[in-house]
Amino acid sequence: MVKSEPKIIGACSHLPFSRGEAACLRQTVRDIDDKKPYDHDQVETLALRQISGNPILRWPIELPPHDPAGVSSAGEFQCWKKACDSKIGIAGVYFSRKSGGRASCHSFLEEKLLRYFEMCPFVVEIRTQYPSWDWSTYYRYVQSGRRMPTAKVMTIDFMLTLQIPGYPFRLYHGVSGKPLSLLTDDRVIERHDREAQQIWKWGCTHEVMTEWTVSGIEHINNRRLLSFMLHTDDLENYVVHAAELARALKATTAKGSLDRVLSMVGRRLGWGQRVAYRIFGIAHFLGYLRWNHRFELNRSNSMMLLK
What domains, with CATH codes, occur in the chain? Predict the structure, then answer.
């Protein structure tokens, strides 16, 4: 008989402003600040937030029709599990440029990670609810003339395609989003091990991210930056303007709120305030600008850009 482990009644380490949350936030800040160059000799330890560098996303993105596992690239890819299949988390379908349109998320944590990946210039493609299966099991079903049951197919929350400056090949990186409190559960550990083993067979790395991977402030900032560039269908026509705005903002000596500085610099470049905000969001999306996510992005607050 399996004995259940005793649980602490009234544990509050996961609550806002608790000591537990403070410890997690400190560790997250250390992980983000302690960046290092990508090492292709240790690719199995790849952690997206710890890669150093300031890449510029090339737009439009060119992708092969399929990845090495034979799964269609973004645009033609269809999520293996729809948002309506979620039984626990708050699910939804979200617009994602790097997904080629729509992306299905099964929880708020996945939506939070989706926004981060969308604004991370290392990431050139996002596919949610990605199917993964054991090839030896698949071959056995093929040889016996039977169809492999869908229950034998796992789904990985995210399959990312990365392009790292100086590295000539695309990297495929699977990400599982899981609450920190569940990472010590034996079933969760076994599941993550199976995910990593299956996709490693075709050269894909694996990482687990939690609710602490992206802070609440950064999530708010990412959503606002994406909202600035909403309904921009011809994004490729703004690439030069985004680079121009980034140079102007880094050189300006103007002081004051984001609204004031961006409006002033925008007028100098011949843009109205609305267009300036649109290009401001696009400049972050492409990597020309980087916001300091220790501070909330707000029109009335100061501009806090990283150099």
Answer: 40-209 (3.40.1350.10), 216-286 (no CATH)
